[in-house]
Amino acid sequence: VFSLNINESSGHYYQTARIAPISLNYFGFCMMKGNYNVKLHFAEIMFSNDRTFSSFGRRIFDVSIQGRKYLKDFNIMEEAGGVGKGITRDFNVDVNDSTLQIHLSWAGKGTNAVPMRGVYGPLISAI
Q: Residue 113 and which of 13, 44, 97, 107 are 20 to 30 A apart at CA?
């Protein structure tokens, strides 16, 4: 078991996260037709940067919204500049059929058993 200190200035969004080995799907139902700004919050909270075994993990995944791939080979640590740092990505999307779908999927890259099984794959802190 390992722990990671989160940068307190990152806020409460980044203290927990949903993760899955292969994919995460989120749906917004009963939405009015129109253009929406979707803000996704990420922070790498499962790996560390302290040169221990838990620092060897690499999380690489894709993000699709409404069936369109917006982020390919997304690596939270690289984009945020380290572990425990929050980062957001904003997307303008159209909803035409009353349903918004957000899909995060493992890109087939990165680690899948380091530092331990179950902490790899797509990760999201908040929507």
A: 13
pLDDT along the chain (127 residues), means of 10: 43 82 94 94 84 72 98 95 92 96 92 67 92
- Sign, CA torsion 49/115/122/41: negative
Given a contact cutoff of 8 angstroms between Cβ atoms, the answer to whether 124 and 41 are in contact is yes
pLDDT score, position 6: 45
Sign of the CA dihedral running 71, 75, 81, 86: positive
Question: Can you tell me the distance from the alpha carbon of 29 to that of 74, in angstroms, rounded to the nearest whole number?
Answer: 26
How far the first Cα of the chain sits from its last, in Å, is 28
pTM score, whole prediction: 0.84
Looking at 31-84, list the stretches that DSSP marks H as alpha helix, in order from N- to C-terminal side: 76-80
Beta bridge pairs of residue 24: 104
Fold of 8-124: Jelly Rolls (2.60.120)
User: Is residue 74 within 8 Å of 91, Cβ to Cβ?
Assistant: no
CB 61 within 8 A of CB 109: no
pLDDT at 8: 47
